[in-house]
Write a structure and sequence with these properties.
Layout (H helix, E strand, L loop, with lengths): L1 H28 L9 E2 L3 H20 L7 H22 L2 E4 L4 E5 L4 E5 L3 E8 L7 E7 L4 E9 L5 H17 L3
Antiparallel strand pairs: 1-2, 2-3, 3-4, 5-6, 6-7
């Protein structure tokens, strides 16, 4: 019964991701002037992955207490489920939003920063780890620090790099309209 509900939730998340991916592609392709203010959120495939993690964490939280594990193992599994759930929920609310007055608001998992266009030197595409790891955009700031854009995290699957490069182009285009 719980497995059926979990699969229905996953199918619903994938359908929503597919529906929003078409709108996102349209938004990215229509960037033609600096009057467009990009808003970057997690890609649909990444949001679907987050949905799978949420379902697995919730199932783990309900199933672990019913199995006769030793107390320490039960506590460890519950901590793992709560940690995964917290991390995914925080990642789901990340975003990068450009404002008409030249501000760039970057909301990562735990912090929010507001930057002027002049604070950003360039937008770069980076891997989070080695081969096969997630990719994301980062901002190289004028003071030499790098600010990761968690909202642009993408899974290491074909097609995601191209989508990430389109997002980088959109953000670079907005940054190019410095006032």
């Amino acid at each position: 019964m719980a497995l059926k509900a979990a699969s229905e939730t996953l199918v619903g998340a994938l359908a929503q991701a597919k529906a929003t991916s078409t709108a996102r592609r349209t938004m990215i392709c229509t960037v033609a002037s600096s009057d467009v203010f990009p808003e970057l959120r997690s890609p649909p495939l990444t949001r679907a992955f987050y949905g799978v993690v949420v379902v697995a964490a919730v199932l783990l939280m309900f199933l672990v207490p019913t199995v006769p594990f030793p107390l320490l193992l039960t506590i460890a599994f519950m901590a793992l489920a709560v940690g995964a759930l917290g991390s995914v929920v925080a990642a789901a609310f990340t975003r990068v939003r450009a404002r008409p007055e030249g501000l760039l608001e970057v909301r990562n998992r735990l912090t929010t920063r507001r930057l002027q266009r002049s604070d950003v030197d360039r937008v770069i595409l980076r891997r989070q780890g080695g081969i096969g790891s997630w990719r994301r955009l980062e901002l190289l700031l004028k003071d030499g620090t790098q600010l990761p854009l968690v909202a642009t995290d993408t899974l290491p699957v074909p097609g995601q790099r191209r989508q990430l490069e389109q997002r980088a182009t959109e953000l670079r285009h907005w940054l190019g309209g410095r006032s």
